[in-house]
UniProtKB/TrEMBL annotation:
<dbReference type="GO" id="GO:0140911">
    <property type="term" value="F:pore-forming activity"/>
</dbReference>
<dbReference type="InterPro" id="IPR004254">
    <property type="entry name" value="AdipoR/HlyIII-related"/>
</dbReference>
<dbReference type="GO" id="GO:0012505">
    <property type="term" value="C:endomembrane system"/>
</dbReference>
<feature type="binding site">
    <location>
        <position position="208"/>
    </location>
    <ligand>
        <name>Zn(2+)</name>
    </ligand>
</feature>
<feature type="transmembrane region" description="Helical">
    <location>
        <begin position="206"/>
        <end position="226"/>
    </location>
</feature>
<feature type="transmembrane region" description="Helical">
    <location>
        <begin position="152"/>
        <end position="171"/>
    </location>
</feature>
<feature type="transmembrane region" description="Helical">
    <location>
        <begin position="61"/>
        <end position="81"/>
    </location>
</feature>
<feature type="transmembrane region" description="Helical">
    <location>
        <begin position="177"/>
        <end position="194"/>
    </location>
</feature>
<keyword id="KW-0472">Membrane</keyword>
<keyword id="KW-0479">Metal-binding</keyword>
<keyword id="KW-0812">Transmembrane</keyword>
<keyword id="KW-1133">Transmembrane helix</keyword>
<dbReference type="GO" id="GO:0016020">
    <property type="term" value="C:membrane"/>
</dbReference>
<dbReference type="GO" id="GO:0046872">
    <property type="term" value="F:metal ion binding"/>
</dbReference>
<feature type="binding site">
    <location>
        <position position="204"/>
    </location>
    <ligand>
        <name>Zn(2+)</name>
    </ligand>
</feature>
<keyword id="KW-0862">Zinc</keyword>
<dbReference type="InterPro" id="IPR005744">
    <property type="entry name" value="Hy-lIII"/>
</dbReference>
């Protein structure tokens, strides 16, 4: 009985060199779990832009906003095409590659406000451009080795996700560190489901939810500690 229920919602696992094919239910869940966050991500990015007080805050808000919105938009488009246009294999393959590439730039964009707006030590300031080199290398890797070495790809995401966090050791102001850690924990827990297609029903959709929660926690930290005007600034603006 349990096997029959599982087979309705989940297909069997595939070899490491092939991509898992979701069931109809999983396709729908994959689309919905990221489509729901497109409008909130656009609104959230707009709020940061409105709160920006100088050029660097504006630039950082744009970079972060494009990365955040791009992640959910590209993921939704890919999963929709994969579901409804399965006979367009070339288009589906290209969008799948693009979906994986966007993750690297999302990670870089998520770090951008912290690296651009916080005071960093001399050695850590190089991370402002190193993070984008890492994203570019990850993109090139996907272009040439997409779906060939899945564990290597996963390791690349983990390294890029945690290596730039080392710069917090040079920050004089460490407000937001707890939120950054909590968001990172959600991403890590989600990776368990990211690699569980064919073992756990709706595994990829669950991974999407962990990504959304992690992104939400990180957005809150950016808004609260980097963009939210403090009481003194509010009093100055009101007095004017």
């Amino acid at each position: 009985m349990c096997v029959c229920v599982y087979s309705r919602f989940m297909n069997n696992r595939v070899p490491s060199h092939r991509r898992y094919q979701p069931t109809e239910y999983e396709h729908a869940a994959n689309c919905a779990t990221h489509a729901l966050w497109i409008i909130p991500s656009i609104l959230g990015s707009s709020i940061l832009h409105l709160l920006s007080d100088d050029q660097w805050e504006t630039i950082s808000a744009w970079i972060y906003g494009f990365g955040l919105c791009g992640l959910f938009i590209v993921s939704t488009i890919f999963h929709t095409i994969s579901w409804k246009k399965r006979h367009h294999r070339t288009m589906e393959h290209c969008l799948h590659m693009f979906d994986r590439m966007v993750i690297y730039f999302f990670i870089a964009a998520s770090y951008a406000p912290w690296l651009n707006l916080r005071e960093l030590g001399p050695w850590a300031s190089h991370m402002r451009w190193v993070i984008w080199i890492m994203a570019s290398v990850g993109t090139i890797y996907v272009f040439f080795f997409h779906e060939r070495y899945k564990l290597v790809e996963l390791a690349c995401y983990v390294v890029m996700g945690f290596f730039p966090a080392l710069v917090i050791l040079s920050m004089t102001n460490r407000d937001g560190l707890i939120e950054l850690l909590i968001g990172g924990v959600f991403y890590c827990l989600g990776m368990v489901f990211f690699k569980s297609d064919g073992r756990i029903p709706f595994a990829h959709a669950i991974w999407h939810l962990f990504v959304a929660i992690g992104a939400g926690v990180h957005y809150y930290a950016i808004w609260r500690y980097l963009y939210r005007p403090n009481e003194h600034m509010l009093e100055v603006k009101i007095s004017k």
